[in-house]
Amino acid sequence: QQQPPQSNNSSIATPDMASYWMPFTANRQFKENPRLLTQAEGMYYTDDRGQAVLDATAGLWCCNAGHGRKKISEAVSKQINQMDYAPSFQLGHPLAFELANKLTQLSPDGLDKVFFTNSGSESVDTALKMALCYHRANGQPSRTRFIGRELGYHGVGFGGISVGGIGNNRKTFSGQLLQGVDHLPHTLDIANNAFSKGLPKNGIEKAEVLEQLITLHGAENIAAVIVEPMSGSAGVILPPDGYLKRLREITQKHGILLIFDEVITGFGRLGAAFASEFWQVTPDIITTAKAINNGAIPMGAVFVSNTIHATCMQGPESMIEFFHGYTYSGHPVAAASALATLAIYQEEQLFERAKNLSQYFEDAVHSLKGLPNIIDIRNIGLVAGIQFAPSDKGAGKRGYEIFDHCFRNGTLVRATGDILALSPPLIVEKSQIDDMVNSLSDAILAVG
Ligand code: PLP
């Protein structure tokens, strides 16, 4: 088992922070009191003070194989030396094809086509466009509406925030969101499901709202429903038992596509390659990014059903079938890093490992029950959310303070408002799970 890296007391000079406008960050607060990461190995980051920081978040749900994997860095280095970049429009390179084939060995049967992107947000935009492309090619051009879900997070493109359901991400831009989008109700129900382990028992009826929306708009006008099988960014919100199956039944009945956004759940987080495998519900499209290549180089992929793909392959063969793509789609260096990552997942059986650890993880996180202000703990696979009552200082303050306290004391957790999320790399050891929980417990008691 890896020991934490030695504190090396070699603190690094704080950089001039004037120019960098940081994403999803309270910039002024951060620059007053920064948290800087400088190295990463295995389960640990090192910060600018030379202190080890146990990574309870896999970076940002990315580094499922842990940090500093030589197989990945060597593949990157070899590829960048061999061919740094190749255009992806009307040209190809072998690795992108090889990667697409390897990926479809993991995806559900029937989702055997892959479109490459550079991020989760791009994967979502791509999936929404594919849905429109499919219905048009299928002779149903009136199917243009989308249905997302409250509290859903689908990245930050205009498509993603339109189908997404996090108020703060939408408000500023509300005048320019996509037209024709509705939202299902979210499935967080602390009153009825607090401290449930695994899937909450109550709430399957929330899927029935889809029937109401279909009655309201007409199935013939609806292109797709998009949901995260498990909402990560909004604070680990789980689907009630049977809920996803019900969404699948309703969408299928009405010829509406179902898109699972698996940017977080893809590549082993729940103890299976995809949440769709874990819950045995197969959508028409799956969006991914992050752990596809352990976060090493920006990359995403959209898995699409053979039917959708075949339907879109129409018209003269000399015509481009789908007017969509990115300069870096299937980037050779990103593709090399993904192939190396998939090899690690397989050689080390990391998805299986996550599955085997999930009971221990569940017991560990639920041992926090009873500490001050915790109003809910929820978990599935190797992901957990711990929700706190807001403090008198305002919503989100308590969550931030616990996160910051943990970081200053050497553990990285993720805060979303007053919810803390844990999603360790799948290489985590039991003793490191204990360390995470102990560190959280200390922080919770200190912050109050
Ligand atoms: N979709 C989901 C479910 C996500 O969790 C995220 C990011 O956390 C995204 C999309 C956006 O991904 P990116 O930040 O790579 O654009």
From TrEMBL:
Cofactor(s) this protein requires: pyridoxal 5'-phosphate
Record-given protein name: Aspartate aminotransferase family protein
SUPFAM superfamilies according to UniProt: PLP-dependent transferases (SSF53383)
InterPro entries given in the database record: Aminotrans_3, Aminotrans_3_PPA_site, PyrdxlP-dep_Trfase, PyrdxlP-dep_Trfase_major, PyrdxlP-dep_Trfase_small
GO molecular-function term, one example from the UniProt record: pyridoxal phosphate binding
GO biological process terms on file: biotin biosynthetic process
Assigned protein family: Belongs to the class-III pyridoxal-phosphate-dependent aminotransferase family.
Record keyword Repeat present: no
PROSITE patterns to which the protein is assigned, alphabetical: AA_TRANSFER_CLASS_3
Superkingdom as given in the UniProt entry: Bacteria
Keywords, sorted A to Z: Aminotransferase, Pyridoxal phosphate, Transferase
Signal peptide start and end residues: none
